[in-house]
Amino acid sequence: MARSIKKGLDYFPLDVNDDRKWKLLRAKYGIKGIGVFVELLRIIYSEGYYYPWDEESQLIFAHDTGITIDFLTEIVDFLTEKGFFQEEKRHKMGILTSHGIQIRYLKACECRSKIIIEDKFRLFELDELPEGLQKKVNIITPFNKEENIDFQEENGHFQEENTSAGEENSRFLPENDIKKSKVKKSKVNNINVTLPQISDLKPFIAFYKKSLKQRGNIEYPEEFETWWKSYPRQEDKKAAFLQWLINLEIGVDFIELQNAAENYKDHVLQAKTEIKYIKHPKTFLGSSEPWREYIKARASPEKKTGWEDLPDYLDGTKTGFDFSEDKW
Questions:
Q1: Rounded to an integer, what distance in angstroms lies between the CA atom of residue 213 and that of residue 220?
Q2: Per-residue pLDDT tens digits for 27-51
Q3: What parts of the chain have a pLDDT lower than 50?
C-alpha cells in the first residue's frame, strides 16, 4: 500500500557549539529564551524546513508554552535580528526558516529517496550539498509544480499519481544528464516567442515550462543566448535558463539581467578573478539575487599617480613653492 511522502523529522540535530549568538540569547533571556528557541526548532522540523508564522500560529505557540505574545514577539525579533531566522522570509513570506535550518534538514533526510523543496522558500544552492544528496533534492518551482499531484512512496521509490506509466516527473535535470533529441522550434501558436515581439510573457513561459520537462535539447530564446554569451562563467546552462525564466515570471526586466551580466563580467575581468571564484550562472540568477548588485556599472577605482601621498614639505599646494620644471 502506497503512503504519502513524509516531510517532517522525527528528531532534529542541535549544534552543541556555544557560539556568540547562543551566548547573547542566554544572556538576554536566560534559559527561558533558549527553551523558546528550541521549541520553535522542534515545531519547524516536525513540519519540514520552515513553519508558517501567522497570528494564529503565534497565539497557539504562546498558549502552549505559557508565555505572553509580547514576550514571544520580542524573542522572535531578537532571533531574526541575530540571524537565527532569515529576515526576508519571515517578514515578506510569513515563515520561520534559515539557511542553517534547511541544510540540517536536508542532511537529516539523506536516507530518503526523494526530498521535495519549494524554490520560493529555498535559501541554499545545490552545489553546497554532497553529490549524492543533490540527486535526491527535487526543487519545485512555478514551472514544474503540478496541482493535485501526490508524491507517494512504495518499496523505496516515489511515484506520481494520475500520471501514465513511464512518464517522467517534472524534476529539472542538468544538461549533462540529458539525451540529445530533436525538439520543436520555439513557437507558441505560430508566434515567435522572442521577448521583443510579445507583450504578454505567459505564452513564452508556458512553452519553455513544457520544454524544460522534456529530455532533450532546448532551442533557447535569443535574449537568453545573449545573456549566456555575456556571462563570464558558462556552466549548467539549463539550470541558469530556469532561474532566468523564474526572474521573468516575478516581473524582473530581462534588460536588467543583461546589464547585470555584462557589468559582472567587466568586474571579474578588472579584478582578474579566478574562474573558480566566479559565481555559477544559476547562483548569480538564484533566489538570493546577487545579480541586483550589478545592474548599474560599478565605477573603476582611480589609478594613483604616486603624487597623492607626498609629504607636506614637497607639496607645492601647501608650501607655496612651485615645482614646475621651468622654475627649477
A1: 14
A2: 999 999 999 999 999 999 999 999 9
A3: 1-2, 143-199, 323, 327-328
Yes or no: say if 258 and 227 are a contact pair by the CB < 8 Å rule: yes
Q: How far apart are CA 263 and CA 270, in angstroms?
A: 11
Residues 217 and 273 in one domain: yes
β-pair partners for 4: 152
CB neighbour class for 308 (10 Å; exposed up to 12, middle 13-18, buried from 19): exposed
pLDDT of residue 309: 55
Give the range of the structural domain holding residue 164, as residue numbers without chain letter: 1-171
Burial class (CB in 10 A: 0-12, 13-18, 19+), 203: middle
Residue in the structure block whose three cell numbers are 524546513: 49
Distance between start and end Cα atoms, the chain: 99
Q: What is the pLDDT of residues 151-200, one digit of tens each?
A: 333 333 333 333 333 333 333 333 333 333 333 333 333 333 344 433 45
Amino acid at 133: L
| Domain count along the chain | 2
Nearest residue to 109 via CA among 51, 42, 48: 48
- Residues 165 and 211 both lie in one domain: no
* Residue spans of alpha helices (H) in the chain: 20-47, 55-65, 69-81, 87-93, 99-108, 131-134, 202-213, 222-230, 237-249, 254-271, 281-284, 316-319
